[in-house]
Model the fold of this input.
Amino acid sequence: MKTLSKHFTSADVRNQTIYADRTELIYAPLQWQLRGLQQTATGYGSKITTREKISFNGQAHRLYCTCYSNGGSVWFMAKGVKYFVN
Done:
């Protein structure tokens, strides 16, 4: 199911970070996520695939999470640059 989302541009970036609300993202889970599976046995890792995408400079980019312990950082790559999403 694809929902309407905000279209972010380079003007929305501050210090390699985009500030977005979950409602401004595209809900686009992969098939294995719909079946209730997770990417790693523990749920931790340096590049955990999320169910959301972000529209940035005219393209949809998959969001990833780096998660160890009880904290995580959400990010995506665009043209070789890592952007964080808060």
About this structure: Residues 7-85 form one domain. Helices lie at 31-34. The chain has one domain: 7-85.
